[in-house]
Amino acid sequence: MKILIVGNFFQGSLDLSYAESLEKTGCGIARFDYLEEYRKLSPLARNRYIDRLCRNLFYAAENGKFLDRVRIHDPDLILIFKGAFIFPSTLRKIQAAKRRVLFNFNPDNPFSPNGAASNDFIRRAISIYDCYFTWGRFLIPKLKNAGARRAEYLPFAHDPEVHRPADVSAEEKKIYG
Question: How many helices (H) and strands (E) does the chain have?
Fold first, then answer.
């Protein structure tokens, strides 16, 4: 099975933990790091004022890059973490070109009014995914009311590569116990 994982792959991220775990299973894994790709678009995207003014233009360019990656890798399954930059129309184009399984795992509340946690793209795309995974059981009825075809509880987990006992010095043991 070929899987394209869309997320941010910085050390300690949920997205990276999933990608590395799936790579160990022998699946053909490709990654699309949307934060890295966003930063490559223009040095202007790093300026928060220009970014706010031009965000939809930057997102349109990013959606084009994402579609190119889908064409290049031709995955069977696409796992998207959150999907804050992905236009619902982009997901529909992916589905129209070739039937692929689309999964989303949102580590935030998609109905939050907080712009850092959610946006209209996230909410309008809920009904497009084949399965929408959530960390909160209380969100499942809300996801279904928003049109989710399937909503499943997927709690956060332990990644032994990230969550391991810290080496603590004798001095730190005195201070912290």
Answer: 7, 6
Task: Convert the pLDDT of each residue in 40-99 to its tens digit.
Answer: 877 777 777 877 788 888 899 999 999 999 999 999 999 999 999 999 999 999 999 988
3-class DSSP state for residue 161?
coil
For residues 85 and 137, give the distance between their C-alpha atoms in angstroms, rounded to a whole number: 25
Return the sign of the alpha-carbon dihedral for residues 4, 126, 50, 14. Answer: negative
Taking all residues of the chain, what is their mean pLDDT, rounded to a whole number?
91
Query: Is the confidence at residue 159, as pLDDT, over 80?
Result: no
Nearest to 78 by CA among 19, 171, 6: 6
Q: What 8-state DSSP symbol labels residue 55?
A: H
Strand partners, 132: 104, 151
**Which amino acid would we find at residue 17?**
S
Distance in angstroms (rounded) separating the CA atoms of residues 4 and 78: 5
The number of residues making up the chain comes to 177
